[in-house]
Amino acid sequence: MNLLIQKSGKIIYENNVNRNTIGKYPKIQFIILCLVLVLFSVIFNFYNSKKYNSKLKNIIENTNTLLINYGFYLQNIYISGNNNLRREDILSIINDQEYKTIFDINLFKIRNNLLLNEWIETVKIERTLPSSIKIQIIEKKPVAIWQTKLGNKLITKDGSIISNANVTAFKNNLPIIIGKGANKDAFLILQILKKNPDLYNNVWSISYINKRRWNVHLNQGLIVLLPRTKIYDAWTKIGFLQKKYKILDIGLTEIDIRNKNQIFAKINFDKKLYLKRKKL
Asked: Would you call the peptide bond into 130 cis, given omega within 30 degrees of 0 as the criterion?
């Protein structure tokens, strides 16, 4: 007990402790702890008894029946954003769960299972009472087809592979990249090539040479040898040459633009025409 004593204008605190209570509090705390442990043990044994389990099961079943009667069960699944991922694949993940009411569905588990699919970048799932689930998907965007010894692979901008994709469906819309490690650096070169849409529309494939530089293969049969650095400047120069001299239309087979100070070109001669002229 604290006593406040005022003496000669000064305030003095005096701590008056009842020494008879010292040593009793630890005993009381120990007794209370023992009683709590005993009570917990009784409750635990009761909860795990067959009688309790049977009653609990009946309560749960009756509650589920009541919820279902009032419409709290899954009736609608709304899916958006799945352009390449099949709806059936998404529904199969939901149907793998055992559930009776809308509350039994484990949204966290569905989300984790969906993220295992290589097409999915992010996914958001919402439970809309009384009977619906909304699934919003953002898919990965393929940027190219990577041609390897093990087959063609669809790749994203970070170089990751979408192994469960139907590559054939993209062969007319995406460029082909070739070379070891090309998948990791393809997005950067593609962004540069797209700066000139007219030229880019003529790109058939791109080869990664020794992990250092790129060769661009155009639909007309022309191969452009790009430098290791200042790729944009070199590609801009090709655009200028096409605009002024129509280099894609004069039978060139190769343009070497690796040296910024000079350009080397190869042209495809018609051998039959050459021999005919020689005879004349």
From this structure: yes
Residue 73: how many CB atoms within 10 A of its CB? 18
Contact 77, 126 (CB under 8 A): no
Residue closest to 248 by CA, chosen among 184, 204, 212, 202: 202
pTM exceeds 0.70:
no
Q: How many residues does the chain have?
A: 280
Q: Which long-range contacts (CB under 8 A, 24 or more apart) does 219-222 make?
A: 220/248, 220/249, 221/253, 221/268, 222/247, 222/248, 222/252, 222/253, 222/254, 222/255
- Cα–Cα distance between 214 and 86 in angstroms, integer? 35
Beta strands in 57-182 (DSSP E): 76-80, 120-128, 132-139, 142-148, 151-156, 161-162, 176-178
pLDDT digits (tens, 9 = 90+) for 37-73: 555 555 555 555 555 566 666 767 777 787 788 888 8
Pairing between β-strand 76-80 and β-strand 132-139 as defined by DSSP bridges: parallel
**Nearest-angstrom CA–CA distance, 152 and 157:** 16
The amino acid at 96? D
